[in-house]
Amino acid sequence: MTSRNVLILPGDGIGPEIVAQAVRVLDKVNEKFALGVTHESALVGGSAYDETGSPLPEATLTKAKAADAILLGAVGGPKWDGLDMSVRPEKGLLGLRSNLDLFSNLRPAILYPQLADASSLKPEIVAGLDILIVRELTGGIYFGQPRGIRTLENGEREGFNTYVYNESEIRRIAHSAFIAARQRGKRVCSIDKSNVLEVTVLWKEIMEEVAKEYPDVELSHMLVDNAAMQLVRAPKQFDVMVTGNMFGDILSDAAAMLTGSIGMLPSASLNAEGRGMYEPCHGSAPDIAGKGIANPLATILSVAMMLRYSLDAKDAADAIEAAVSNVLDQGLRTSDIASEGNKVVGTEEMGNAVLAAL
Ligand code: NAD
Question: What EC class does the entry list (predicted)?
Answer without folding.
Answer: oxidoreductase
